[in-house]
Amino acid sequence: MSDPNPDLATRGSLAGRVALITGGGQGLGAAIADALARDGASVTVLDTNIDAASAVALAITERHGVVAHAVRCDVRDRVAVDAEVSRCLEQGGSLDILVNNAGVSHVGDRTESVSDEAWHDSFAVMVHGTFYLTRAVGRAMLAAGRGAIVNVSSIRGVLPRAERLPYATAKAAILMMTRCTAGEWARDGVRVNAVLPGFQATPMWDQDVADGLVDATAFLAAVPAGRLGQPSEVADLVAFLASDRAAYITGACITIDGGVTSSLP
Ligand SMILES: NC(=O)c1ccc[n+]([C@@H]2O[C@H](COP(=O)([O-])OP(=O)(O)OC[C@H]3O[C@@H](n4cnc5c(N)ncnc54)[C@H](O)[C@@H]3O)[C@@H](O)[C@H]2O)c1
User: Fold this and answer.
1) What is residue 171's three-state secondary structure?
2) Which of 163, 177, 224, 239 is most buried by a 10 A CB count?
3) Distance of CA 33 to CAs 36, 43, 64, Å?
4) What number does the ligand 1 atom closest to the CA of 156 have?
5) Is residue 167 annotated as part of the catalytic site, yes or no?
6) pLDDT of the chain along its 265 residues, tens only?
7) Which position among 132, 167, 205, 240 bears the catalytic label?
């Protein structure tokens, strides 16, 4: 029998858990932090933009009554990542959930014109950052014998597109990191999964449209569901994967895209 109120059904499912979300200052990361807090986790919102992260943490505490912290950290900086993870562990006692969400969108150049900066920055944020966080937090999770990591990839990790080489290649690397690490750590009680959002209504999308990098009408026409995805929908999937209800799911790479990757002409 289906639950009459699926929202309420998830509340409390993460009670007592401590979560760290990268890039949580806006967009998908902010929605993910909110969903984890709604379900009972205390959260740390990590972002280079401390003002945005602080606003998200404050709103979360007011809305859900859980502990929420904001930290300024650049996921490209290994030394800073290790220091922040240590500080989170001292502060919260454990880290049970890690969401590697921070991302940057370099769009618009064919391969022969991609700049060193676009290439290196894409990898620094999305590949190196995800690795640094996974390694640092993973050590604590392995010692504790439990943990759930969710990596935010993209449909671009499996669906190529012209003029998106750095982004798509970095997102594909995240999928392989997810599966390699999941296979290694499953016996130690640590699960690692990835989500692949399609076209989402976030500031990143708005910016790409405003910059003329994305033709909103053409993209929407390619979505069988006929609309953009909402950040809360990705957040609910992440919260599920982070919870014990997903205890047997690891190494999964799950599209959430309104059918885009299932409807190529
Ligand atoms: N928006 C979409 O349509 C879409 C689709 C698929 C996947 N994604 C992925 O979802 C994730 C979030 O996307 P979004 O649309 O919310 O993006 P966004 O640009 O709205 O937010 C990204 C956040 O990450 C932070 N950030 C960027 N670089 C950082 C760094 N080096 N260290 C720490 N924080 C950093 C930014 O300050 C920002 O708060 C990204 O990984 C993105 O690639 C987005």
Assistant:
1) helix
2) 239
3) 5, 7, 11
4) 6
5) yes
6) 445 565 667 889 999 999 999 999 999 999 999 999 999 999 999 999 999 999 999 999 999 999 999 999 999 999 999 999 999 999 989 999 999 999 999 988 999 999 999 999 999 999 999 999 999 999 999 999 999 999 999 999 999 999 999 999 999 999 999 999 999 999 999 999 999 999 999 988 898 899 888 889 998 999 999 999 999 999 999 999 999 999 999 999 999 999 999 997 6
7) 167
The residue written with tokens 């454990």 in the block is: 94
CA-proximal residue: ligand 1, atom 8 (nearest): 154
The ligand 1 site (C-beta within 6 Å) comprises 22-23, 25-29, 47-49, 52, 74-76, 101-104, 125, 129, 152, 154, 197, 199-200, 202-205
The CATH label, of 3.40.50.720, 3.40.47.10, 3.30.1330.30, 3.20.20.70, for the domain at 6-202+231-256 is 3.40.50.720
Structure tokens at 33: 């932090």
Closest residue (by CA) to atom 13 of ligand 1?
Answer: 28
**241 — phi, psi (to 5°)?**
-65, -30
- Compute, in angstroms, the gap from residue 1 CA to the centroid of ligand 1: 37
